[in-house]
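Readers of this paper often ask what the protein records in our data store actually look like. Such a record has a labelled line for the sequence and another for the backbone structure tokens. The tokens are whole numbers drawn from a learned vocabulary of local backbone shapes. We quote a single record here, exactly as it is kept in our systems:
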Amino acid sequence: MAGGITGIPTPQQSPVEERRQAVKTKTLGRTGAAHDDSFREKLEAQRRNMKQNQDRQESDQQVEKRREAILAKIGSRRHLQYNVIEDAAIVQVSVINSEDGTIVRKFPPDEVVDFVRRVKKSGRRSLDITL
């Protein structure tokens, strides 16, 4: 017989073997390099995002430490007050003693604010200062 034995059933694969064969076929059907490049790009993007998040958290922690250091220096008996001085285009911050309301310090000082006001009133566009 040229065609082989007829009438004998061919052995069937078990469901597990069929599944393995299907996975092999799918895997071999893909272009491996393109798949690997895409995977690597996604992985690198995730790593960059994780690094950015970690950097942001570290930055936030540093800001919080600085804020706590400033609060420790000025003490809890003091608070800050912000004043917008429109004619000088300056924001002046005052450190005020909470107990009696006295001004401890101003940033920038009143002298600087007055100087800027005078310069703006004079209409000068540039300022030549020689020391």
